[in-house]
Structures are given as C-alpha cells and as structure tokens.
Design goal:
232 residues; mainly alpha; Serine Threonine Protein Phosphatase 5, Tetratricopeptide repeat; Arc Repressor Mutant, subunit A; 2 domains; two-stranded antiparallel ribbon; 57% helix; GUN4 N-terminal ARM-like repeat domain-containing protein; GUN4-like; ARM-type_fold; GUN4-like_sf
C-alpha cells in the first residue's frame, strides 16, 4: 500500500468530508499504514474534541490508536484521555470503567455480561440476587445511566450496537417484535438464537445484535427498555 505524502494528503482531504461512513473507512485505511498513519489519526481525534458529543468516529480513531501499541500513540492517549475516551455518568454512582475497557478491546461477550450486571445493579439488590430484571424495574432506570450504557456501546462498535440502535430498528419495523428479533438475529423462524454460542460477538453481527442481555428477551422488559423516556 502506498504511504507517500500525496496519498496521505488525499486521505486527509477526504476525511474532512462530512460523511461518517466514508470517514470511518478512511480511519481504517490510515490505521493500515501503521506508523505513517498514526499522526493523522491523532490529529483527527484531537481536532474532534471541539465537537459537542463523542461519536463512533472518535471511538474508532481512539481504538485504532490504542490497538497500534505504538509508544507515541500510548503517550498521546494518556496525555489527553487518561481515564478513557468516554466519561461515564451515573445517577447511581456506578463504575462503568470495566465495561468501557471490554468494549475498547472488542470483547463484546464480556461487555454484554457486564451490561446485564450493571442493569441489575440499577434495578436494585433484588435484581442483583436473581440476575435478571422485571419490566417494572426497567421503567425506573435513571436516564443518565441508560445514556451512558448506550453511548459506550455506540462509540466502540462503530455505531452498530446499543439500545438506541435496537429502538431505531424496532421503530422502523412498525414496532413489530417478530421483525425486530429477526432483524437483529435473536430469532430465526420459530427458534430463538441459543446463548452464547449462536450469538455473534464481533462487528460482523447485524446492527442492533448487541447488547443482548439475554434475560431482556421478553417483550415486556424489552418494551420498557425501548420506550424509556430517555430516548424521547
């Protein structure tokens, strides 16, 4: 692959175009250049600190730099984001740092288990003990925490996963649950996808496939999640 300055300059020009899918592709191209692509990735990420919200473009650039294991990238990330790219907010004082690290590593199976754990913690000691949720508990979740969980999944999945993505698919299919289950590959025909081996724990999964939080696979609990006031 060419790594001359003209080629990189062309990539950087294209990176300025307000087209997230194109920008995402270019970030990955820069990462394949290894050392010549590091500075452009760092410049892109630093410039985006002026944006009002962190998006999956920031998360992808951050992850690609982190995965490079290059000393200059490690120094850069530590200098500007010593506690991680996303600052998780919680009305309940929950710590989401382990979840952020799992998502950064793309360990989606571990991240899914942690997500269910945090949802149970939000629901209270009863849910923690039983390991699953009542729909009435979901209704009372703090919006700030749901936003945090959703943002973490969105930012580190290139925008493919998250509760808001599942809601978007549900709404686009006229709130038809059977269509949702099929679209996000939780069900095929009359058969539910078997946990965990039949689920797809990487970015090749259909959009909205994760977080699974397997115990949410009931209409009432899932309905409470996808109709929560935080998404309005």
């Amino acid at each position: 692959m060419p790594t001359d300055s003209n080629f990189i300059a062309e990539l950087l020009t294209q990176l300025q175009v307000d087209n997230p899918k194109k920008q995402l592709s270019i970030l990955h191209q820069l990462a394949t250049l290894e050392e010549p692509g590091l500075q452009p990735l760092m410049d892109f990420l630093l410039a985006r600190r002026q944006q009002p919200a962190i998006t999956y473009l920031d998360g992808t650039a951050y992850r690609l730099l982190w995965q490079s294991h290059a000393p200059q990238a490690k120094t850069f990330l530590q200098a500007h984001w010593p506690d991680g790219l996303v600052t998780p907010l919680s009305d309940k004082g929950l710590d989401y740092s382990e979840l952020q690290q799992s998502l950064l590593r793309q360990d989606f199976e571990a991240a899914d288990r942690l997500t269910l754990k945090k949802l149970c913690e939000l629901a209270g000691s009863g849910a923690v003990q039983r390991g699953w949720l009542y729909f009435t508990e979901v209704e009372n979740f703090p919006g700030q925490d749901l936003n945090t969980l959703d943002q973490l999944w969105q930012v580190y999945s290139e925008g493919r996963f998250g509760f808001s993505k599942q809601r978007q698919i549900w709404l686009s299919n006229n709130q038809n649950w059977e269509k949702l289950w099929e679209k996000i590959a939780w069900k095929k025909g009359n058969a539910w996808t078997r946990y965990p081996n039949e689920f797809i724990w990487d970015l090749s999964a259909p959009e909205g496939h994760l977080p699974l939080s397997n115990q949410l696979r009931g209409v009432r609990a899932m309905a409470s999640l996808l109709t929560h006031p935080v998404w309005s």
